[in-house]
């Protein structure tokens, strides 16, 4: 059985188990997971209906339909609509082809009012529930093929990082470094980036999600780079903090070593059967005990896969038990406003034995642009 057919069977079993008769998806990571195809989210609605029993039904703009029919991941009915006629009739035909719907699952974080109104008209009395728990149950666990795609995204990312770090010089702006990273990713074969590269220097690095600007890199300061790419939809997300041109001050070295130890402690705590929050606690404890607790202002990590942020979340209160096949980041940081920011982020896979870091870029404090180098 193909991967996609197996996913459909598992999805339908989940739906039956939750007494949901149908799940509707619009273009995005979930629809890609279920079809293997990247549909465009545009003003023309595309909706995949997955009933708990029987073949799915797809409402697609006429120009998108042939691509789906050629891929034919499993038996499905396609209701195509032309620009001149609009989606209403195709939608009505699709809904009539589905079993009766009492409970309908839609993506609360994604479906637009456009699609929701189109669908709801045909099932005005249906209870509408969030599709996330259903899709998460499937997507939480990556199979070997998915992990291989993530490894490739990470390989490309680390290759680009190595190349760009060698070019970094004092006087370059954050924005210049960010654009070099973007180009290096494309040259190395990366797909669409999950987020724009974050490149921050000196005190700017104290903003966890700062935007690269015209600030010039200065010798003796830190350079924080957080970026990633995608490969067949699966993303990478890595952060390394470097030292520019001159050896670090004792203070920078101290802060860096605390973050490195926190990253290591987080990864060491991860393994099968461990609740997510224990990984957060392990990393956080190191930073708190070093006296920097108030400067670690975010959760320790987030799941990654087809989305750059997905379940599980490595945060206090998330008691999800880590299990083999789960992938997430471990990214503790210390951010002292107006002074410095340091973050070290790895992408981790839970294995039957423990946790493997898929990112392998060195975690030592590397001094870039040293004399003659
Ligand atoms: Co990141
Ligand atoms: Co991240």
Q: Please provide the ordered H/E string of secondary-structure elements.
A: HEHEEHEHEHEHHHEEEEEHHEEEEEEEE
* Named CATH architecture of the largest domain: Alpha-Beta Complex
Using the coordinates shown, work out and report the CATH topology of the largest domain. Creatine Amidinohydrolase
Classified by CATH, the class of the largest domain is: Alpha Beta
| Proportion of residues in helical segments | 25-40%
How many domains make up the 3D coordinates?
Answer: 2
How large, in whole angstroms, is the Cα Rg? 23 Å
Could you give a short account of the major beta sheet?
A: 6 strands, mixed
Given the structure, what is the number of helices? 10
* Model regions low in confidence, pLDDT < 50 over at least 5 residues: none
User: N-to-C terminal Cα separation, in Å?
Assistant: 54 Å
**In the CATH hierarchy, what is the superfamily of the largest domain?**
Creatinase/methionine aminopeptidase superfamily
The helix/strand class is alpha+beta
Calculate the mean pLDDT score and round it. Answer: 96
Bound molecules: cobalt (II) ion
- Beta content comes to 15-25%
């Amino acid at each position: 059985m193909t991967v996609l057919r197996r996913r459909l069977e598992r999805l339908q079993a989940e739906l039956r188990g939750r007494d949901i008769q149908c799940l509707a998806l619009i273009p995005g990571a979930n629809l890609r997971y279920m079809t293997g195809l990247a549909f465009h989210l545009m003003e023309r609605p595309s909706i995949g209906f997955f009933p708990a029993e029987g073949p799915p039904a797809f409402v697609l703009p006429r120009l998108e339909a042939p691509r789906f029919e050629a891929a034919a991941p499993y038996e499905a009915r396609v209701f195509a609509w032309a620009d001149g006629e609009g989606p209403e009739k195709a939608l009505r035909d699709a809904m009539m082809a589905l079993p009766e719907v009492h409970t309908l699952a839609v993506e609360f974080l994604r479906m637009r009012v456009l699609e929701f109104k189109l669908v709801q008209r045909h099932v005005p009395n249906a209870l509408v529930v969030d599709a996330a728990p259903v899709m998460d149950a499937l997507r939480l666990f990556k199979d070997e093929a998915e992990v291989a795609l993530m490894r490739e995204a990470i390989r490309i990312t680390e290759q680009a990082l190595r190349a760009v770090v060698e070019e970094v010089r004092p006087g370059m702006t954050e924005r210049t470094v960010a654009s070099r990273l973007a180009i290096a990713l494309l040259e190395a074969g990366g797909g669409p980036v999950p987020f724009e590269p974050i490149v921050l220097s000196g005190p700017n690095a104290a903003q966890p999600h700062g935007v690269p600007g015209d600030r010039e890199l200065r010798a003796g300061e830190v350079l924080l780079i957080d970026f990633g790419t995608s490969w067949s939809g699966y993303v990478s997300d890595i952060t390394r903090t470097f030292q520019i041109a001159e050896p670090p001050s004792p203070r920078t070295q101290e802060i860096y070593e605390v973050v490195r130890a926190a990253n290591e402690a987080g990864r060491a705590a991860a393994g099968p059967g461990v609740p997510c929050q224990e990984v957060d606690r392990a990393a956080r404890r190191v930073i708190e005990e070093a006296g920097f607790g108030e400067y670690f202002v975010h959760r320790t990590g987030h799941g990654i896969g087809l989305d750059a942020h997905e379940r599980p979340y490595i945060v206090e209160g998330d008691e999800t038990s880590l299990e083999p096949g789960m992938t997430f980041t471990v990214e503790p940081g210390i951010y002292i406003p107006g002074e410095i920011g340091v973050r070290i982020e790895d992408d981790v896979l839970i294995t039957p034995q423990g946790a493997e870091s898929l990112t392998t870029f060195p975690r030592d404090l590397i001094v870039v642009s040293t004399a003659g180098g």
